[in-house]
Hints:
The two termini are 27 Å apart. The radius of gyration is 20 Å and the shape is globular. The chain is built from one helix and eleven strands; from the N terminus they run ββαβββββββββ. The strands form two sheets. Strands 1, 2, 3, 4, 7, 8, 9, 10 and 11 form a nine-stranded mixed β-sheet that branches. The chain has a two-stranded antiparallel sheet with strand order 5-6. With 205 residues, it is mainly β.
Amino acid sequence: MTNKYERIKMRGTAVYPRLNKADIKYFSRGEFKTSLRMSEEEAKPLMSRLSEIFQDHTGEKINKNKTNLWTFDVDDQGEPAGTVTFHTKIRNLLLKKSKKGKDGKKFEDFEIWERKPKQYDSQGNLIDVQVGAGSELIVACDIYAWDTGSNKGITLQPIAVQVIKLVEYVEKHGFDAVEGGFIGKPDTDNSDTVVEAVAADDFDF
């Protein structure tokens, strides 16, 4: 049993975004996801609201240091970094459809429903860009409550993203730098591009 509680919007810096092409590493049908990093002060009201919803749905208090919803970041020395990273993910679904064959007989078939989050620029215009790590985003998420019968919880499902500052993702094909090797003239079309934009606080997706 799954129920949608409400939709929230979060603003932060993208961490390991997979918003353009579904990631199939851990889920064969593919999933779109991004983590979103912000300061602990900015995160407090979000953590408070999510904790309320978690307790309302499960009847238990959330373990703030061990949850699928967020992570308290630490630096290289293992000390608190003063930031919190929220985790969002939405999986493609397999839909059953009734079709008619050449012989006129009906049969059931399946197809994948791709649930790629829509993208908008800072002015609310639909776009389709390669969102890379470090991009500043506002992510609209549905809070879904799930119940397997033996376990309960909530997840953040990204429905749409508004790009405030874009750092474009560039496919590097697995190559690493080789010391002492040939260095050509950089192709500006293949380098990371940062695009500044003015945020719109009262937008609608």
